[in-house]
Amino acid sequence: MDQEAVPPHVLIFPLPLQGPVNSMLKLAELLCLSGLHITFLVTDHIHTRLVKYSNIQSRFNGYPGFRLETISDGLPEDHPRFGAVLMEMFDSLKIKTKILLKDLLTSGKLNSDSRRPVTCIIGDGIMGFTCDVANDVGLPIIYVRTISACCLWVFFCLPKLIESGEIPFTGNDLDTPIKSIPGMEGFFRRRDLPMFCRSGSLSDPNLNLYLPEATENSRAHGLILNTFDDLEGPILAHIRAFCPNLYTIGPLHSHLKYKLPGQSLSSSNSLWKEDMSCITWLDSQPPKSVLYVSFGSLAVMTKEQYMEFWHGLVDSGSRFLWVIRPDSVTSDPMDIPSELSKGTKERGYIVQWAPQEEVLAHRAVGGFLTHSGWNSTLESVIEGVPMICWPYFLDQQVNSRYVGEVWKLGLDMKDTCDRVIIEKTVRELMEYRKDEFWKSADEMAKYAKQCLMEGGSSYGNLERLVNDIKAM
Ligand code: UDP
């Protein structure tokens, strides 16, 4: 076959975590739709879960240009991977997977009669080894970061923060303003920085992982961000000084709704089994009456924190749908005092994993108590659902400050876990100030949707990305 007539072939390699896998699969689908050939590379661990719980195989049957390929993360099968040992996975990827990735690209295994050899790599900027491999084998690489631009900008400024002596610090004086991050003067405090800045140590492994972000991200041909210009425009201007070729194409998960209007797009990229019964329960609830509660795929809480949430939610009088992953509480999660479980029967519903995008789009949902993961935040933004933020780690402390203080899309409850405050905050969002929050959330949702439509910034940037890949 004339190789020139065959479409370009992109290898996409997401960070092996639920959030990045979810958004990169959406990107893969969009690129397939534009006629590109895609090899989607996942670790064996992610592959097992995707095949078991998502509908990836049936969904991508409609895309002959899509292939799923696996690679080892170098860890034993029974390694927990997440939680306290997350860093072990990063280390193993950097050392062991790097070698395997180079072998895979040079082995010819990804080529066939109907496919060109890989013409471009899209890799997560936090896995800098993908750029080393791309350089070794002579391929262009585009990075993607699946965190917010505001947090990425904080990462870019880490060297400056160290130089000015603003970090590291310990858990004290958390309301001290931060001065060395251009664009964040006046509202950004110590407590809004990623948690690792509070460790009091320059040798914190997380700090060292994110310290080279500015130099690392500028090594690639371009940088894809899952955000949109109307949301993070001023911060994007700062990032462009380091990475001029930015593709802001978010909210990534919603493009298909506009590209394929009228089609049912039940795309589940879940690594856990979705409990669809919660949709039936939501169907029987009044409009905007339910607070959806979920802390994503990685956050864990202590039994004490969990009990504070229980009391706070029950005492608030609000209806709620709560996702409690089996591994999310550091002791038996089903050990609920009987008076609490009785009290919530009619107005509380618990599942282990929910079809989140569908839940947030449901007319019964009026608020989201979230850990402020970036995917969850964007999924809430586009559906116009106001948020209560209880950030756990990484970009979440930054995101929650922006949600509360800059975008005015909800309330930031970071660094507290007290039943009285939880009750009060839920009442504020769902009752006393609901009109104010719905109005601002509605406005931002409109901007998000406009960005995705023809003529919108994310729509145009996605087209530019496809054209650039075709020209490589
Ligand atoms: N999610 C889901 N069902 C749930 C909880 C979460 O499908 O019950 C999805 C959610 O839609 C999002 C992802 O898991 O796409 C979580 O990503 P996020 O960046 O918000 O947080 P992380 O899990 O990385 O901390």
Q: How would you characterize the overall build of this protein?
A:
The structure is a single chain. With 472 residues, this protein is α/β, with parallel strands linked by helices. The protein has two domains: 9-150 and 197-267 and 453-471, 3-Layer(aba) Sandwich (Rossmann fold); 276-449, 3-Layer(aba) Sandwich (Rossmann fold), CATH 3.40.50. Helix content is 44%, strand content 13%. It contains 20 helices and 13 strands. The strands form two sheets. A seven-stranded parallel beta sheet has the order 3-2-1-4-5-6-7, with helices on both faces. Helix 6 (149-156) runs parallel beside helix 10. The longest helix is centred in the first third of the chain and has 22 residues, at 86-107. The chain starts with 8 loop residues before the first strand and ends with a helix. The relative contact order is 0.12. The model has no long low-confidence stretch (mean pLDDT 92). It binds uridine-5'-diphosphate (UDP).
Q: How many separate helices?
A: 20
Biggest β-sheet: strands ordered side by side in the sheet: 3-2-1-4-5-6-7
User: Roughly how many Å apart are the termini?
Assistant: 20 Å
Assembly level: single chain
Chemical compounds bound to the protein = uridine-5'-diphosphate
| Low-pLDDT residue intervals, each spanning 5 or more residues | none
CATH superfamily of the largest domain: Glycogen Phosphorylase B
CATH topology heading of the largest domain: Rossmann fold
C-alpha Rg, in Å?
22 Å
